[in-house]
Amino acid sequence: MLVLTLLFRLATLTLPREERDRYGEEAVETFRAMILERRRRYGALSAWWMGVRGCADMLRAAGMSRRWRREGNRGGVGMWFDVRSDVRLGVRSLSRTPLFTIIALVMLAVGIGASTAIFSVIDAVILQPLPYAGADRLVTVLEGKTSGEQGYMSFSRPNYFDTKARNVVFEEFGAYQGYSLTLTGDGPAAQVQGAAASSGFFGALGVEASLGRSFSAEDEARGAPADIVLISEPLWRTRYGSDPSLVGRTILIDGSARTVVGIMPTDGDWLDGVEVWLPLVDDPIWQRGDRRMVGVARIREGLDLDGVRAGLAPLATQLAEENPTENFDMVFNLIPSSEWGASPELRSGLWILMGAVSLLVLIACLNLTNLLLARGANRRRELAMCAALGAGRGRITRRVWVEVALLCVTGAALGVALAYLGVDALLLLQPDGVDGVTDIAIRPLVLLFAGGATVFAGLISGILPALGTPHDRIAPILREGGSGSVGTRSAGRLRSGLVALETALSVVLLVGAGLLIRSLQEVSAVESGFQTEQRVLFEVGLPEQYQTGDEAWALLKDYLARMQAMPEVRSAAAVSMRPLVGGNANMTILPWDETQESFGALPSADWRLVTPDYFRTMGLELLRGETFGPVMDRDGPMEVILAESLADRLWPGEDPLGKIARLWTETDRQGLVIGVVADMRERGLERDPTPAIYLSYQLTGWTPVHFVAHTRSDPGTLIPRFRSMLAEIDPNLPFSNVQTMDQVVAESTGERRFQTLLLGIFAGAALLLAMAGIYGVINYSVSQRGREIGLRVALGASSDTVQRAVVREGVRPALGGLVVGMGAAFVLSRLMETILFEIPPTDLRTYGGVAVLLLLASVLACWIPARRASRIDPMRVLRTE
Q1: N or C: which end of the chain has fewer CB within 10 A?
Q2: Does 704 sit behind a cis peptide bond, omega within 30 degrees of 0 on the bond before it?
Q3: Torsions phi, psi of 826, nearest 5?
Q4: Under the phi-then-psi rule, with left for phi > 0, alpha for psi from -120 to 50, and beta for the rest, what region is 255?
C-alpha cells in the first residue's frame, strides 16, 4: 500500500499550489485510509484497482482545476466553454447512474406528456378561436317566455321573418333548422343530415360557397320555387367524386328533383355534420307556434349585448301584441359565441382535469427533487472535491442546474412524444356522447405550454438540490470518506417533508377521482323507467311521399307486422325521437278548464309520436288506462297518454283518465287522456324524470322514424333481416344509425365516463408516484442507517421490531400528508360540485376509502425496505466498525 500512497502523493503535485497546500495532505490521508479499508474488506487486488483509479481521478481533477482557472478569465467566451464543459460532465454523470436517470425521465415524461395532452384538448375545445371573422359579434338568437318553464325556445318561421324585416340591431340575421333527408340516385338510397338555412345564416357567419354560390334573398322570398340545394364538401367528395360538373345538375332529395347551385365547406362548428342544405322559404303554411329554428346573427358595430337586448325588447312586445295566442310573454334570448361549442359541464370537467394533471406534474417534480437530494447526498464528496480544487459556489451550483436542465429537456422531449400518442389515445378512448373533442392536435400554443411546463419542472425540481451543494463544509465531508452523516438528519427531514407534500397532493387527486367514480355509480344505479336488455334501435328516413299521416301509418303498420312475425322478436314499435339522446320537442300544456292566470306557471312537456306497442317494447309500465288503438278517431279530441309526473302536475290528487288537456296552449288542440305510464328519463339519466306526453304516430309522417325491437336473442344478429325486410317494402328507404339500448345509455353517460376515466388514471399515477417517494425515502434511510440497525439487532432487537420501526418511519410523513390532503380536498372538491351527481363534495365514503387506500399503499411502499432492514447482518456491521 506504500507504493499506492506514494503514487497518489505524486499525483497531488499536479494540483495548483493553492489547492495542494490547502487540501493535499488531507487528501493523501483520506486516500490511504480508504485503500486500507478496501484491502481489509475485499482483498489486495481490489485495493490496488481502487488505488489506480484514485490516482487517475486525482490527475483528471488537477487538469479540470487548471482549466477552470484558465477559462474563468475569458469573460463571455469562457462562460460558453464552462457551460459546454458542464453539459459534457452532466451527460457523463447521468450516464453513470442509468437507473436514476431512467426513473427521472419517466416521471418527467409522464407528467409533462399528460399535461400537454390535456392542454391540447382545452386548446381545441375552449381556446381556439371560432373560424369566423369578427366572431365576438356573433350570437345565437332564441325565443323565450317571461313566465312558465320555457326560458329558451326555438324560433318559428313566421316570427323569424317578422323579426328579420323589423330588425334594427343586427348587421346580418339568419336562421337554421336541421332534419333528416333521403338522398337517392347516383348510388344507394342514403339518409343524410339536412338543414334549411336562410341567406342571412351564411351571411352572419361570413361563409361562402367553395364552388358555385350559396343562397340569396330571392331564394327565400315568399313564392320562391325552393327547388335548389347546396351540397357539403365531404358529401361532394365521397358520393360524387369531387365532380365540379355537379353544380347545375339535379339530384333527388326526398323524391323531389333539386338543382345543385353550390358546394359548401365545413367549418368545425355550425356547418359540420350537415350534408345537404335547402333554402328557408317564407311559406304561409308554417304556423307561428311551430318552433323548430335557431337564429344566428351578427351584431351591428358599436352595440354590445345589453344594447341588443334593449333594442329587441320593443320588437318582442310588438310581436306579442300582434299574436297574443302564440307569442304571449315573448322575449328574445341571446347566447354569445364565446359559449358555443363545448357544454358548460364539459368545460368545467376539462379545467378540473387540467388542474389534476398540474398536480400530477407537481408530484413528479417533488419526487424528482427527492431523487436529486438523495443523489446529491451520495455525491457530496465528489462536489466537495470540486470545491477543494477551486470551483466556486456558482460553478458547482451551475453544474447541478445543468444536470437538472438536461433531465428536464430530455424528459420534455419524451413528454411531447408521449403527448402525440396521448392525443391519439384520447380520440380512441373518447366514448360516444362526448362532443367537441375531435379536433385536438399538438399546435404551437400547446408546444409553448409544454415549454412552460418544462421550465416549471426544472425550477421546482432543481432549487433545493442546487441550494444544498457543499462549499463551506468541504473539510468535514472529505474527512468522512463518503460514509459519514453530515447533514443527513436535516436532509432526512426535508425529504420526509417533500414526501408528505406529494402525498397530500395525491390525496386531492384521489378524492376527486373517488367523487367522480361515486357519481358514476349513482348515475348507473338511477331508475331510468325503461329496460335495455336485448333491445335494439335503428332509424329510417321517410321521403316526401310518406310524410303524411296516412301514408306513414300504412308503412309503419306493414313493417312492424313483418318484424313482429319473426319468432326471434318479442315486440316492435316506433317512436319519433330516440330516448336519452334524440333531442326534445316541447309543448306547453294546460287542463282544458283552466287558464294561465288561474293555473300559474305553464308546464312544459316533451311530446313523442309512438305506435301502440311502444310502452311494452321499452318495458315502460302502463299504470292506468290503455294504449292507442289500431284506428284513431279523427273527429274527437286527440288521444294522449301522459307520464305520471305530468298527470300529477296537471290534476293533483285526481284521476286523469278522461280529462281534456289543451295541447300547445297557444292553440285550441284538445287532448283526451286515455292512459298514464311510468316516468321515463327522456332527457338523460342525470336529469329529472321527464314530463312527457305521447301521441299516436297516425297523426303525421314525422321523419326520421326510430324503430325499437325487443328480441329473444342477440339483437345484432337480426339487423340484416330487418334491413332486407325494409328493402322489400321500398328499396329507396334508408336504414341507418343502429344501436342497442345499452349503447344508447352508454352514450348518454359518455362525457361523465370520459372525465372519470381520465381523472382516475391521473389519480392512480399520483398514487404510484407517492408510493415511489415513500419507498425512496425509506430505502435511502435504511442504507444510511445500516450501522444503527445492525447494532440494534446485535443488542437483541427482533426482525419484527426492526420492520415495525422502519414502517412507522415511512408511514409518519404519509399520515401528515393524508391529514393536510384531506383538508385541501375538503376545500377544493367544492369546485366539482356542478359535475357531481347525487353526492356531496364531502362524501364520507369517498374520503374514508381514500384514507384506507393511501395507508395501505404507504405500508406496501415501506415493506420492501423494512424487509431489507430486518435482514442486515449485525456481525458484518460490527466487523466493519
Answers
A1: C
A2: yes
A3: -60, -35
A4: left
- The b-or-e profile of 288-319 (16+ CB within 10 A means b, else e) is bbbbbbbbbbbbbeebeeeebbebbeebbeeb
Residue type, 833: E
- Residue of 686, 539, 694, 688 lying closest to 606 (CA atoms): 694
State the DSSP code for 127. I
The two counts, helices (H) then strands (E), for the chain are 27, 22
CA neighbor of 129 nearest in space, from 234, 266, 267? 267
Max Cα–Cα distance, the chain, nearest Å: 122
Task: Compute the residue count for the chain.
Answer: 881
> Can you name the residues that pair with 257 across neighbouring β-strands?
252
Say which residues have a Cβ less than 8 Å from residue 49's Cβ, sequence separation at least 6. none
DSSP-derived secondary structure for 784-831: HTHHHHHHHHHTT--HHHHHHHHHHHHHHHHHHHHHHHHHHHHHHGGG
Write out the DSSP string of 674-717.
EEEE--B-TT-TTSPPB-EEEEETTS---SSEEEEEEESS-GGG
Lowest mean pLDDT segment, chosen from 4-18, 331-345, 486-500, 660-674? 486-500
299 in Cβ contact with 168 (< 8 Å): no
* Grid cell listed for 239: 358520393
User: Does residue 296 sit in helix, strand or coil?
Assistant: strand
CA distance 544 to 536: 26
**Residue linked to cell 427533487:** 369
As to burial, measured by CB atoms within 10 angstroms (0-12 exposed, 13-18 middle, 19+ buried), residue 713 is: exposed
Residue 461, all three cell numbers: 425540481
Question: Could you give the dihedral angle defined by the CA atoms of residues 148, 149, 151 and 153, in that order, rounded to the nearest 10 degrees?
Answer: -110
Helix (H) / strand (E) containing 576 = none
pLDDT tens digit string along 17-35? 766 776 677 777 777 777 7
Cα–Cα distances in angstroms (integers) from residue 85 to residues 39, 61, 402, 609, in the given order: 35, 13, 10, 79
pTM above 0.90, yes or no: no
